[in-house]
Amino acid sequence: MAQFNSQITMLFIVVALVCAFVPVYSVEDSEAKSLWDTCLVKISPKCALDIVAVVFGNATITDSCCHDLVQEGKVCHDNLIKYIADRPALIARETQYLKKSDDLWSHCVAISKTA
């Protein structure tokens, strides 16, 4: 039950960040919005939450979500993580989050190659 509550909390954080900041970027940079829209459709909401929980928390990721992440692509993954990590509340630990993001990517690529 505690893990479920943690995932719900993470969902609300992601939704709040997206709602608060996507309109600003979409006005200034239509190419970034297009990439954002393209990336969001490539991965399930559950896997997106799992990925965010791994990078910004201490969760683990399933092999199936790793496959989705690799299919999403490195550019999409990097942009999503960088976008979230740039928020004022998180920027102090941005380097740590980007390292965890790279580690997650490497792990998922290795998982995808063995399947």
Topology:
Blueprint: H1 2-28, H2 30-40, H3 45-56, H4 63-72, H5 74-85, H6 94-114
Offer a concise description of the structure.
This protein is mainly α. The protein has six helices and no strands. The model is unreliable at 19-28 (pLDDT under 50).
Please provide a written account of the structure.
It is a single chain. The chain is mostly helical and 115 residues long. It has one domain. The protein is built from 6 helices and no strands. It is globular. About 9% of the residues have low confidence.
Could you give the count of β-strands?
0
- Whole-number tally of structural domains: 1
Strand content: under 5%
Q: Compute the separation of the termini in Å.
A: 31 Å
What would the keywords be for this entry?
mainly alpha, 0% strand, globular, Prolamin-like domain-containing protein, Prolamin-like, signal
